[in-house]
Amino acid sequence: MGRLFVIEGVDGAGKNTLARRLVSAWERDGLDVVRVGFPRYDRSIHADLAAEALHGEHGDTSGSVHAMALLFALDRKDAAGEIRDLLSCNDIVLLDRYVASNAAYTAARLEQSADGEAVEWIRALEFERFGVPVPDVQMLLDVPVALAAERAAARESADAARTRDAYERDGSLQSRTSAVYGALAASSWMSPWQVVTAEVDPDRLAAELANQPSGELKVTP
């Protein structure tokens, strides 16, 4: 059975870049690795509806914190079987965003902390009711919110197809989300966490994660 690793962080933190480098490092070591990004745009009707809502479609859907959270959660519910299948035939499954993303953004939108009702609701909804797999390790890519915002804006300027959505344009929301992420990591929410910065050595991080025995993952910051 493979291990499930997750990369979390605010928009523009550099999750995609880190994910690519980790996958490359593991593959060089001969490991079978597969990567899945959430939301699964162009693969999931729930993810596509959420994206459309965040770009102004579907009436007042984006204004409902819980409606948006449900759409993102349903995307993962539909992917749960696929993730289990991938874990059964790969050494590592790496997810770019997962349940903690929903918990952090939902709590931030409601201006709640990591120990508030929103995070507990997401935990019970996704892990208990929907039964999505629990990660072995969650990594928080912790970068200054201002730098992440600059990166997101630059990405938009360079690619007309990457228009920032309502969440990405809300600097205050990104700051609150970053704070919730930090608290989730500090409390080891649902599994061990590792907090890394943009300067992290991907090869070293990949080796640290891969070389620990399954079921005995003890990742330190």
UniProtKB/TrEMBL annotation:
**Can you name this protein?**
Thymidylate kinase
Catalytic activity from the UniProt record: dTMP + ATP = dTDP + ADP
Top-level EC class, please?
A: transferase
Superkingdom assignment = Bacteria
Query: Mind telling me which PROSITE patterns this protein's record contains?
Result: THYMIDYLATE_KINASE (PS01331)
E.C. number: 2.7.4.9
* Task performed by this protein: Phosphorylation of dTMP to form dTDP in both de novo and salvage pathways of dTTP synthesis.
Keyword vocabulary terms for this entry? ATP-binding, Kinase, Nucleotide biosynthesis, Nucleotide-binding, Transferase
| A GO MF term | dTMP kinase activity
Looking up InterPro entries in the UniProt record yields: P-loop_NTPase (IPR027417), Thymidylate_kin-like_dom (IPR039430), Thymidylate_kin_CS (IPR018095), Thymidylate_kinase (IPR018094)
Output the PANTHER family linked to this UniProt entry.
THYMIDYLATE KINASE (PTHR10344), UMP-CMP KINASE 2, MITOCHONDRIAL (PTHR10344:SF4)
Determine if Isomerase is one of this entry's keywords. no
Matching entries from Pfam families are given as: Thymidylate_kin (PF02223)
Gene name? tmk
What family name appears in the similarity comment?
Belongs to the thymidylate kinase family.
- Domain named Thymidylate kinase-like is located at 7-163
